[in-house]
Write a structure and sequence with these properties.
Layout (H helix, E strand, L loop, with lengths): L25 H12 L8 E5 L5 H8 L4 E6 L2 H13 L4 E5 L2 H7 L4 E6 L7 H13 L3 E12 L10 E7 L2 E7 L2
Parallel strand pairs: 1-2, 1-4, 2-3, 4-5
Antiparallel strand pairs: 5-7, 6-7
Keywords: Methyltransferase, Transferase
Protein name: 16S rRNA (Guanine(966)-N(2))-methyltransferase RsmD
InterPro entries: DNA_methylase_N6_adenine_CS, RNA_MeTrfase_RsmD, SAM-dependent_MTases_sf
Length: 179
């Protein structure tokens, strides 16, 4: 994986092969950040990266100037890799090792952008629980968005506060907003 833009543009980050991850492709990530770039100033926002995996999305935010980034993942290897990478690049990324659903049930953190990249094989019930907990617990700031990455075989358009989706190859980003 590589960082698309910003301070660390073109830097390659190689994750250990034993991590249980499916990193967002460079093409999909570039398209996603083009959308976000039209909505926010990166240095003015806070980000919560759920099911953070390798930290790929968080590194992109940090490279573009975001200084308030929190990564949540339950896998120790993923958290360790994110911490090592963030330290090596002096990136302002905090990590929390916990099950994402437990985190969402207890958290009082409020951010501008929540990015969730759960396993593509999640059930409809598991996918639905993500926006449900986020909006129920007011984890987004007033101008905030939730972005859920999922397979093109999953349709999230019936979920609470769904706004629109964008498709890139086999991946889809579904956007949710406070209404």
């Amino acid at each position: 994986m590589r960082i698309i833009s910003g301070l660390y543009k073109s830097r390659k980050i190689i994750a250990p092969k034993n991590l249980p991850v499916r990193p967002t492709t460079d093409m999909a990530k570039e398209s996603l950040f083009n959308i976000i770039n039209n909505l926010y100033y990166f240095d003015d926002i806070s980000v919560l990266d759920l099911f953070a995996g390798t930290g790929n999305i968080s590194y992109e935010f940090a490279s573009r100037g975001t200084n308030n980034i929190t990564c949540v993942d339950q896998d120790f290897g993923c958290i360790k890799f994110i911490n090592q990478t963030a330290e090596a690049f002096y990136m302002p990324i905090q990590t929390i090792k916990i099950d994402v659903f437990k985190f969402l049930e207890k958290s009082t953190l409020q951010v501008n952008i929540i990015f969730a990249d759960p396993p593509y094989n999640f059930s409809d019930v598991q996918f639905a629980k993500i926006p449900e907990l986020i909006f129920q617990n007011n984890l987004l700031l007033e101008d905030g968005i939730l972005i859920v990455e999922h397979s093109k075989h999953t349709d999230l358009s019936s979920l609470i506060n769904f706004s629109y989706s964008k498709s890139y190859g086999g991946s889809v980003f579904s956007f949710f907003e406070i209404v």
